[in-house]
Amino acid sequence: MTQSSQASRQRYWRSVLQHDVPASLVVFLVAVPLSMGIAVASGAPIAAGLVAAVVGGVVAGALGGSVVQVSGPAAGLSLVVAELVHTYGWRATCMITLLAGLLQLLLGAFRVAKAALGVSPAVVHGMLAGVGVVIALSQLHIVLGGKPQTSALGNILELPSQIVNNHSHAVMVGILTIGVLVVWARVPRLRMVPAPLAALVIAAMTAAVLGWDLTRVDLSGGFSSLESPLLPQGDWHAIAGAVLLVALLAGVESLLTCVASNRQHDGPRADLDRELAAQGVANVVSGALGGLPVSGVVVRTTTNVRAGARSRWSTVLHGLWVLLFTAAFAWMIALIPLEALAALLLFIGVQMVNLGHARNLRGHREMPIYFVTMTGVVVIGLAEGVALGLGLAALLALRRLAWISVVVRQAGDRWRLVVTGSLTFLGVPRLTESLAAIPPGTAVELDLNLDFMDHAAFETLHAWRLEHERGGGTIDIDEMHGEWYAAAVSGARMLPARTPPKHERFWLPWAYRRRVVDSARQSDGLCAYDEMCETGPGHGPDDEQATPDLLEGTREFHRRTAPLVRPLLHRMARKQTPSHLFITCADSRVVPNIITASGPGDLFTVRNIGNLVPRASNTPPDDSVSAAVEYALKVLEVQTITVCGHSGCGAMSALLGEAPDLPALRNWLRHGRQSLARFVAFPEEDADAGPLDRLCRVNVIQQLDNLESHPLVENLVRAGKLELTGLYFDIAAARVHVLDRERFSAVPELRRG
């Protein structure tokens, strides 16, 4: 073993002792009371919950795909287990758990874990909330000194009688347990001891001192009291359904917990397929030993992370502590009142109705799914409630996919029709109604912002268009997303998925923003983008109408772009924090935000003819660029100044030849004389390029030198707090190059595999 590997192992074990061992003790103190309470709620032996805690910690912890997830008996499965125990008996339920584990192991081997994440979180949260309501209602009767009914509705109907007639010691210990749980979490100094453990200890000690008449936990015989699994008897269809239900519910809850745990720590990311297979092995072992079904548990996982766990040793050790405690101190568990466990479960059940999840779902309009699932679980049953939730989620998803918005407005003598969404046969009636509202013979602007259009919708729209134009009307069609209508007119194949737009319209010059015309008005049926690039502005039909003025451009911004960028600009309205000062030419073909793929707030830009930076020693001084440099460095604290030149620069051409008879321009170009002198001194530099392009590049390098003539810039560069960069934009090739004092190199392209 090398010295470095030995040192690495020492650091690893030091981390385990420092972080994982203390965390495992905290999780152990949380797991013991919760495991016993879930066993009570499931109608299973108390020891079955502890067996599941041990197996979940040791087996799932050692084999799982997450280093921090803690597995064990979960409250979300207690309703299923209680129903199985009632129908088949406990030993048969253990066999169903074992078979469910084998199914999970098979699913993990086929690597289908990510498919479980396709289940709507609204259904999962609604299911857990419904289970919480059912648990709370059933355990409330035990806290009140009575017995729970067979259904949630029965528990609700029986509740008034329980409240009026039962005032035994059970009520007192239940109130005491819940009171400790509520107060304990609100006192920071007490949080070192888990609230569930503290509540059960205080309740047990109080009941023993005061001599309350309560039912005690029966853990006689410890783990040896458990029996081996037995094949269930009955309809095999129902048994197979039970196995599938346990496997899927436990698997989905484990995987969702696994995904949530990734957000809580900075260690290795979880392997979902490995985690699902590990859960399968744990359920096989737990079922064989007579334990409850095992799944990942959010409460214990969160506790593990917050306690500082760094590796899977924390999870494994917590399972070993549960095993040692049960084997050596089972007599202590027997002192806990069952009514106190019922109060703990009541508290847990109420917490499972997480209103925070409901509020998060509201923004996505999934609240109905949550409440339908929860209500179905409470009123009908777990499987039925989940099925209702999944069905509603599928219907709402279908509705969203088929959503269509059709808006008709009149602006003077023109009409504007905006269609947004997926235009299918389901939206044809609404589209037809809107089209009928447009008078014949009018001028219409039709904006199609579609992610899909089926044949029925196209036939309806195209027939109306032909009829409207025969009646003397005009229609300008603008497809702002995929060109579904244009493709259908030309006979192109319509793909059943969203197609990428041919271009992003924001960077196209006004002259190229053409309205789509069909074959009735143009021979090829489409005005293709490639053809426009070949002909250019001013060479095609209707060009006098194809070039909007500046006001039309601003109207287009207000209509299409402003709604998209408004939230971003609103956040940065009070302050700008650019990272670059970008000095470039005033040439209209150079658009800094396009060639740098930057957005609002990224570049503090200075533009002038020739991208010139007057030297600090110039007489008389020119403060226009100096003021921008000073403000960018002292106020905005930019980290980079970039000078960007371009090919075919008119200012450099004027330096090489005779400057035009423009006095102000001639006066400004005196700041380029150093560039011209440098070009003359090194005539062979970049010999592959023509004289003009060589001067354009030399000019960029000279302006970087001019920047360093300013003391503020020079001091920051020497201190390593400022970087100067030279860029050169080849307009014809649409290519950006990096320049510096020694070399000229192209910015490398990202090549696709």
From TrEMBL:
It is found in: Membrane. Zn(2+) binds at C585, D587, H646, C649. It is a multi-pass membrane protein. It comes from the Bacteria. SMART domains: Pro_CA. Its EC number is 4.2.1.1. One of its GO terms (cellular component) is membrane. Its cofactor is Zn(2+). InterPro entries: Carbonic_anhydrase, Carbonic_anhydrase_CS, Carbonic_anhydrase_sf, SLC26A/SulP_dom, SLC26A/SulP_fam. GO terms for molecular function: carbonate dehydratase activity; zinc ion binding. The chain crosses the membrane at residues 21-41, 48-68, 88-110, 122-144, 164-185, 197-216, 236-259, 280-299, 319-348, 369-398. Residues 17-366 form the SLC26A/SulP transporter domain. Binds 1 zinc ion per subunit. Keywords: Lyase, Membrane, Metal-binding, Transmembrane, Transmembrane helix, Zinc. One of its GO terms (biological process) is transmembrane transport. Belongs to the beta-class carbonic anhydrase family. Catalyzes the reversible hydration of carbon dioxide to form bicarbonate. PANTHER family: SULFATE TRANSPORTER (PTHR11814). This is carbonic anhydrase. It comes from Planotetraspora mira.
